[in-house]
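step=predict obj=DUF3021 domain-containing protein n=124
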Amino acid sequence: MKRILKRFLKGLAIGSTTYLVLLTIHFQPMLPTAFNTISVMVISGLIGVATFIFQTDLNYFVALIVHFIITVLLVAVMIVVNHWGITLQSLWLIVIAYVVIWIVLRLQQERDVREINAKLNKRK
């Protein structure tokens, strides 16, 4: 349960930050509502929980594709629930946001691995 909550909160943080960036660049034509914000937070948390797919025996590339599909479906639900409308621009934005977030997380993981390896090498 603790691992689920941790992934939910990490997804919530990433999704909320992404939503704030999109609001800042005026991607959403109307003012945000409490419902918009809550739906973004819940969906983002669920996307975070969906990262458990990477803990399976699936090949990393297959898991990435499955996670991307889950993410697109959840974002599509959020778009429909909020009556934002799915456009070609919003689909591209989903892809771009996913790729940027994936790159940032991948770089963070590589940094963490280097730090852990450096600490392990010090112990030898």
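step=describe
Helices lie at 2-24, 34-49, 60-81, 88-123.
step=end
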